[in-house]
Amino acid sequence: MKLSQLEPGESGVIKEFTDLEMSVKLMEMGCLPGESVKVQRFAPLGDPIAITVSGYQLSLRKREASTIILH
Q1: Which residues form the Ferrous iron transporter FeoA-like domain (predicted)?
Q2: pTM to 2 decimals?
Q3: For residue 33, what pLDDT band results from cuts at 50, 70 and 90?
Q4: Core-most of 17, 27, 43, 46, by most CB within 10 Å?
Q5: Residue 38: is it exposed, middle or buried by C-beta count within 10 angstroms (0-12/13-18/19+)?
Q6: How far apart are CA 54 and CA 43, in angstroms?
Q7: Is pLDDT above 90 for 24?
Q8: Residue 30: is its pLDDT beyond 90?
Q9: Which of 29, 33, 6, 8 is nearest to 18 (CA)?
């Protein structure tokens, strides 16, 4: 399952990334394999997505979230 497929309140554990270039950016922001992520909310038009990871809140575009594969 991809992070972009979760609904607000749902969570998962990062397994891997589908885009090597994007994965470097995401890992620099704390989205590391094995980290738990929770979707907090969507913006009014559905993009971006607010998530909690590594103890802080992060906003990602759906395109970015779709590159994160969860357990």
Answers
A1: 1-71
A2: 0.88
A3: very high
A4: 17
A5: middle
A6: 21
A7: yes
A8: no
A9: 33
Q: Does residue 68 carry a pLDDT above 90?
A: yes
Q: And the tokens for 23?
A: 């994965």
Tokens of 61: 């575009």
Query: What does the pLDDT read at residue 54?
Result: 87
What are the contacts of 11-15 at 24+ separation with CB within 8 A? 11/36, 11/37, 11/38, 11/39, 12/36, 12/37, 12/70, 12/71, 13/37, 13/70, 13/71, 14/53, 14/68, 14/69, 14/70, 14/71, 15/69, 15/70, 15/71
Structural domains in the chain, CATH included, are 3-70 (2.30.30.90)
Look at residue 46 in the predicted model and tell me its pLDDT: 82
- The helix (H) or strand (E) run that includes residue 42 is strand 36-42
